[in-house]
Amino acid sequence: FGYLDHLPEEVVLREKSTFLAGLADVVLNGYYGVLNQGTLKETRTVIEFDAKFMDLGNRVDNTLAYVRPDNVHRILNTVLELFKYRAYNYLDCITKKREVTEVLLLLNLVKYGRLSAVYRDNLNTWYVEEWEHPELHSRAHNLRASFKTLITAKPLHITLAKFFKGKEISLPNLALTTWVNPHSVDTAHSAQQIVLKEKELAQQFHQIVQAVHNRPAAPGAPAAAPAP
Would you call 77 helix, strand, or coil by DSSP? Predict the structure, then answer.
């Protein structure tokens, strides 16, 4: 029997948690993926949404920032792929300087204009941070028609610049992955191309982040300004 066999049918893993922090907890504690692997009781996690929590509180988010179980599966698989198991020695906290090594950036996850980050340092500590951008939320129905305008919006890159600087993150040495809510942008993709749409939006956001924040400055020149 696996350890989950001893749990009741419904368990509250975390109270007063954000959606993203809850997802990170699920992965970090081994509740997502293949369970009882290699046995007759091998199963894979199934995601179900509770209808009581489906209302995001306003029309913009309910229309442009919602996620479906298939989106969540892909986010969780991205987390598993990016944050692979790493052996940890407790002496590292004494002998090593803390450095952020992996970052997953998510845009418009259950809140339009929200920029979220799951990141891990070389001491094997995980973090979740989220930043709201009400100026983007108020322009949501215009921005949905222009993805480039959204991902080059100055408020997003001011936030990212502060984050990278504050955490002393070196982009050339960083494993960076991005995700964009595919429901928040209008594209030419059909409804059957949601996986492709999600992948291509993430690639474009990744390229912009690298272009804006990974440009080497000339000697004596000021740091690159955020995109307009």
Answer: helix
Burial class (CB in 10 A: 0-12, 13-18, 19+), 1: exposed
CA distance 73 to 67: 10
**171: amino acid identity, one letter:** L
Cα of 36 vs its chain's centroid, Å: 27
> Which has the closest alpha carbon to 132: 161, 148, 156, 99?
156
DSSP 226: P
Amino acid at 3: Y
d(CA 205, CA 54): 27
Q: What percent of the chain has pLDDT over 70?
A: 84
Name residues whose C-beta falls within 8 Å of residue 59's C-beta, 6 or more positions apart in sequence.
Answer: none
pTM, two decimals, is 0.83
Give the span between the Cα atoms of 144 and 64, in whole angstroms: 8
**pLDDT at residue 227 is higher than 60:** no
Residue 227's Cβ-count burial label (10 Å; 0-12, 13-18, 19+) is middle
Q: Is 189 exposed, middle or buried (0-12, 13-18, 19+ CB in 10 A)?
A: middle
The Cα–Cα gap between 67 and 127 comes to 22
